[in-house]
């Protein structure tokens, strides 16, 4: 690209191979891309949402209706479309659920903005109107928070709402919700330590075999076949070192000229390795988790003394074991003391097919738990893991971030109604954008109705009418269809934080894309 300069010489500002799209073309391209991404996940929304099969270039298959997973796996190149993916990612990171809701809302806000741009409403007016509507939406969400304490029954309903419609194999959402709430309550004190709840999958059994383990599950296998597979009241050491022959830091060559010298070198190695084993045995430990490598001869010596040991333990896993058992990280086997050890009621090794897993249960701190997910196939186990992770996240959000609100599209109906009421007091073209925001919110209950087998227009009319007369109304999926009713009576609840984050992130993405009128890209 060039611009005229003095004395008739062109002044180059952009490289000649730069591509530039301006004005309406740029706006249309960006909005179309954002809407396309949103539409790709719309059919997965709600308890009757459909699944997507995602196949990578290498042939790996993912089957899911989790919005964040779908958008993450999709190969998206358009920069505006990537911004919608970021909406889903932010939603997942902040509250753990509502990713599809956020993406669908962002797409509908873009669609409404496109109509306003066609009517010559300036992008600045649209942005101002959307932000004003988002403010009203946040106030309405706060008003819709269900009063009363957040007890276990309410939390179970929140978890059930999150997991219903997701692939859970031969087990229903209610038993899984009970497991989720129990897990969160185990790590709750002044607040919820969500990181202390781990999810571990293992194929080879039906989903109904999923259980809560009071402790940590390690995928590392014992170092020696003769090591014990069950240790009760175990003293545990977490060692951050290698238990093998030490190597010199000096690059040197040794000239061995006789058998005696060779035997002396081998004896020195044996002595060093035996010292490692003797130090551990003499310290009185029962189980050792080593982040580095352990020589086979050390492993054999430990096995002879009845010590259970694991090596190459992942740093995160070692840290989790340390926290659960109160074991200190130790960088040397010299002068090991009882104060360095952790403790667990039971360390057991179980075999699953060709794999062995170590269960560290009843740690002295007892602050870490693991949801042990079973599934007949890898696809089932992976989808169940995603469902449980969402359930854990929404229960955490309900406890820590402002309670719960009615689900099933009821909160969106209330928000839209509140925005329309206040829109009348807003002057100028900004009012059109505020009203468009309210109309955009209708996409969520309308999509829920469509996915439940209802007529979306009739359902929306009935929702508004029932809301006006009863104060709350949502889409309750039943069998192959659905009905309009009170979601509170049906136990359908969402964390208020999920709604707040969805409105905020969708608004930010939609307004940012709407303001772009020039796309400059290098070839």
Q: Your description of this structure?
A:
47% of the residues lie in helices and 19% in strands. It contains 16 helices and 20 strands. Strands 8, 9, 10, 11, 12, 13 and 14 form a seven-stranded mixed β-sheet that branches. Strands 6-15-7 form a three-stranded mixed β-sheet. A hairpin with a 2-residue loop joins strand 13 and strand 14. The longest helix is centred in the middle third of the chain and has 25 residues. The relative contact order is 0.18. The model has no long low-confidence stretch (mean pLDDT 85).
Q: Sheet bearing the most strands, described?
A: 7 strands, mixed
Termini Cα gap = 13 Å
Global shape: elongated
The count of helical stretches stands at 16
What's the alpha carbon Rg, rounded to whole Å? 30 Å
| Strand runs, count | 20
Structural topology:
Blueprint: E1 2-4, E2 10-12, E3 19-22, H1 23-42, E4 52-55, E5 61-64, H2 67-73, H3 79-94, H4 99-118, H5 123-144, H6 152-163, H7 173-186, E6 197-203, E7 211-213, E8 215-218, E9 230-239, H8 259-283, E10 287-290, H9 296-304, E11 308-310, H10 315-325, E12 329-330, E13 342-352, E14 355-363, E15 369-375, H11 378-400, E16 404-406, H12 410-423, H13 430-441, H14 443-451, H15 456-470, E17 474-478, E18 481-485, E19 493-495, H16 496-514, E20 518-521
Parallel strand pairs: 6-15, 9-10, 9-12, 10-11
Antiparallel strand pairs: 1-2, 3-20, 4-5, 7-15, 8-14, 9-13, 13-14, 16-19, 17-18
Helix pairs in contact: 1-3, 1-4, 2-3, 3-4, 3-16, 4-13, 4-16, 5-12, 5-13, 5-16, 6-7, 6-11, 7-11, 8-9, 12-13, 14-15
